[in-house]
């Protein structure tokens, strides 16, 4: 059942960048969960998970710079995305948050932790890593998009976003997510590719001292389970989980499984709850 409570003005300008967002308040003492989407997507990838969690905890989703309905801005590094997330957290007066980042969203979460560890209650790092891809692989993608557009890489990207079963049985959704990706700003997409290419959070991951859940789709061809597992191994006490029958975007392909993991993890943060290690 759809339960979004639509804000009258779901836009805010912070540091000269207008961000598109949704914030859903909730009663109780559960910390707000901030969802950070992946490269080439907007916050609609979280719709089913956020709808399922609505009312249980405060929820904030937003289109990162260069994506969706947010400004393109100038993207030179992950720090530019961290600037926006930090400003958005302050805008809503959130003292403590749980960060749930997918792919580049997980790198932005790690960047926010490096800058403001006291703000982060816990982290959920989905299909991401401390270092993603190589200089050559990113430069090849950037050059292709610059010369031929996002459409030239879209089919290959969607093969790792979703499993073969999704491609075979959910064709209309596949078309929709192809449209989502190819309608992103080329400048925003390229800038974020550069940001991911140059980011390395290996040392940051070793210093993370908050409860952390690392999640991987079992058929993720972009950040394979072994890569996500290597991130979990760097983070002291991190929990690692695999979602079956999922590619790179489990919040679309297996939202119920992801939601269950998030709900269980948030419950473990309550005072007196058993912490997963």
**Which strands sit side by side, in order, in the main sheet?**
1-2-4-3-5-6-7-8
Q: What shape does the CA trace take?
A: globular
Unreliable sequence segments:
none
Query: Secondary-structure element order, as H and E?
Result: EEEHEHEHEHHHHHHEHEHH
What's the overall average pLDDT, rounded? 94
End-to-end span in angstroms? 34 Å
Estimate what percentage of residues fall within beta strands.
15-25%
Which secondary-structure class do the elements indicate?
A: alpha/beta
| Largest sheet, strands/sense/barrel | 8 strands, mixed
Provide a count of the helices.
Answer: 12
Q: List how many beta strands DSSP finds.
A: 8
Radius of gyration: 17 Å
Percent in helix = 40-55%
């Amino acid at each position: 059942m759809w339960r979004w409570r639509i804000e009258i003005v779901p836009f805010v300008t912070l540091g000269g960048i207008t961000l598109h967002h949704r914030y859903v308040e909730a009663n109780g003492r559960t910390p707000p969960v901030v969802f950070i989407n992946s490269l080439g997507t907007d916050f609609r990838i979280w719709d089913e998970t956020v709808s399922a969690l609505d009312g249980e905890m405060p929820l904030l989703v937003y289109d990162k710079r260069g994506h969706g309905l947010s400004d393109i801005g100038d993207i030179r590094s992950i720090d530019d995305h961290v600037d926006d997330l930090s400003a958005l957290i302050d805008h809503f007066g959130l003292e403590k948050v749980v960060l749930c980042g997918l792919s580049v969203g997980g790198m932005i979460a790690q960047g926010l932790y490096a800058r403001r560890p006291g703000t982060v209650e816990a982290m959920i790092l989905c299909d991401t890593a401390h270092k993603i891809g190589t200089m050559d692989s990113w430069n090849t993608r950037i050059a292709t998009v610059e010369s031929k557009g996002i459409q030239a890489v879209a089919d290959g990207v969607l093969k790792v976003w979703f499993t073969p079963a999704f491609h075979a049985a959910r064709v209309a959704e596949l078309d929709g997510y192809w449209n989502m990706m190819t309608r992103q700003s080329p400048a925003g997409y390229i800038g974020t590719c550069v940001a991911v290419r140059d980011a390395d959070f290996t040392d940051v991951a070793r210093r993370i001292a908050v409860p952390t859940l690392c999640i991987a789709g079992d058929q993720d061809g972009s950040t394979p389970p072994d890569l996500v597992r290597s991130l979990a191994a760097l983070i002291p006490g991190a929990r690692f989980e695999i979602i079956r029958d999922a590619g790179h975007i489990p919040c679309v392909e297996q939202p119920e499984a992801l939601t269950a993991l998030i709900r269980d993890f948030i419950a473990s943060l309550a005072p007196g709850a058993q912490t997963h290690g």
